[in-house]
Amino acid sequence: MARWHGKLCSEPRVTVRQDGNPCCDSCGIKCDWQELIKTQAFANSPYLIPQNEKPGELNLWWPSSVPYSAKSKDNSTTQSPVPPTNTQHSPTPVYPTVLASHEFRLVCLDANENPESPVHLTIEAFPQDDAPDYETVSYTWGGEAADSTPTKPIFIGPYWDVVFQTTNCWEMLRFIRPWRGIRMIWVDAICINQQSNLERADQVASMMQIYRNCTRVIVYLGPDIAVPPHGRFPPRRRLDDLALGPDQDQAAFKKLLQRRYFRRIWVIQELILPPQAVIPIRGVNYWADAMVYSRLKSVPDWDWNKTAAPWLQHTAQGGIWEGDLAHILRTTAKSRSSDPRDQVFGILGLVNHGPTFQADYGISAQHVFVGLFAHLISNLKFLDIFYHATGASPRSRTSLTWMPLWDLTSTWDTTFDPPPPLDMIMADTLIRSLKPAVKVSCYINFNNSWSRVVGSPHTSAASRGNVSRYIKLSSSQSVTEAHTTSIAFAGWQRATSTHKPWHTGLSFDAGAGTLSLVLTHFCPIPLQPKKIGSLGEWTMFEVRGSQGSLFLASRDPLDLIYHPNQDHLFILNPGEGSELWYLVLRLVGDSGRWTLVSTCRAMFLSLDADASDIAKGVEIRIEPGFQSLYQLLEPAARAFENRQLDEIAGILPEIATTTS
User: Fold this and answer.
1) Higher confidence at residue 204 or residue 231?
2) Which of 174, 190, 215 is the last residue of a domain?
3) Is residue 366 part of a domain?
4) Is pLDDT at 493 greater than 50 in this prediction?
5) Hey, what's the torsion of the CAs at 381, 387, 388, 390, to 10 degrees?
């Protein structure tokens, strides 16, 4: 931004010359913005994103909802680190005052009958509960050309101070200029001081209120779509008229939804939160309100989920009312932003259920995503994170082994999808068809409806030579109590209690990003897993033990990533009748820490004939006297490998490729 007047000019009188450049009649200086752009064009260019921290020096503290802990030099746990203090940006001619947390700015856009006249506006600050009627504008900074270079002049205030904006922002302001009087609008690029991280964070936190309190949002799709009307004013149509119209209109509308605009993360809340949206399309103003979804439900063959912007069905609904933060992340995962942190910050205004947090532009992208995944695990108990975790695949230097890749578009799109289904009966049939020597098949799962009866699939139960042999784990009540008595054991913390949910003492190390949680240690993996077949996206592997075989369903190549004498199988019990999670962890030297290798969907256990502990059908339930998975799995583990179970506090370290 630049003030181009003489230093002593205190009463500017600006007029526009025939060449289109402003000139001050008081000081006699002409604004040559073409020269100013050479030195000022990038003064308000996109902000710099802090660099990602080095491994072990993450200094995590955001969001405050996450139970972070720090290790002192004597390895004792201390309280969570204190976030750094954000400093405000210095006042400027365009932003002379600092906004209070309850304030926001509005643009007062001047009328001009000449469309080629310079864009001039003023900016005023208002309390959020004492502001005039205003509209918001939804657009993309870079437009369809993705050009975010600020090269077009916007003139602000009585001095006509110059602020350079992108071509698409400039075109948008020219398009919505009123034909008479003034127009009060909220434009993010101008109403927020983009050079102040603290103000940006405060205003992002206020966007839900800003958008919900506006009269409507104007959707600007670019100069090729938003063209002047044939008459003085544009005709008005309902948006669903395009879908209710001829087939060519429906096809044109679906093609319109493929524009880059609809892939931008910020436009989602910009269209969902306001009470009405207006979309100028080739001289016609199409409007949408909260009823557009209901009206389109009656249209044959119309399915929002098959369009390029399925979230558009929530237009003018005031929010996405079903689901928590994880659901909203899944709904918006295919949207994009130039700042990776906005994949999270850009949807916070849509969260209506569960705990949430405030954006902070003073932290790195790595910090944001570690904090996001830690929040989902600790507060929402969203364990699907482990299914999508990086594990032993060295695909990213910035991802911890317990968290998904966040810096690749191809993986982010599916990060919040549930694991693909696995047909347990088909999996068991596959195992027995490939392993005819299997005598006893035990499927371990917290599912009241499942039991495995062993025998030929073509033989009736009454005629089978072998009696039913299976283990069935079912959850008849939740584990609610937790008390801990721990002793040091081989660098682990071995729990001797019988009541210990997985999230007991859950914490994330603020420096290293390591995750601490309670897991049940089932057994070491004694031999290299062997691939025996596939079912959908899952691959079945066999691990041979001294008295039987273990079968694991995984998406990872367990046979290729196995490390002898280091890999162990752990079980995570979510409780409350949920299915178990099976985690392959790798011990890191003698540190007592583990890396996550793979998350498995199911575990099948086949034992050699006449295994004494489960020679007959056995059903094991979680009841008041039998509340620990540590106890529940003891017979199975002893029969498989003739060993004892350990319930430990496992730690998943920070570097996917760490080995000893």
Assistant:
1) 204
2) 215
3) no
4) no
5) 110
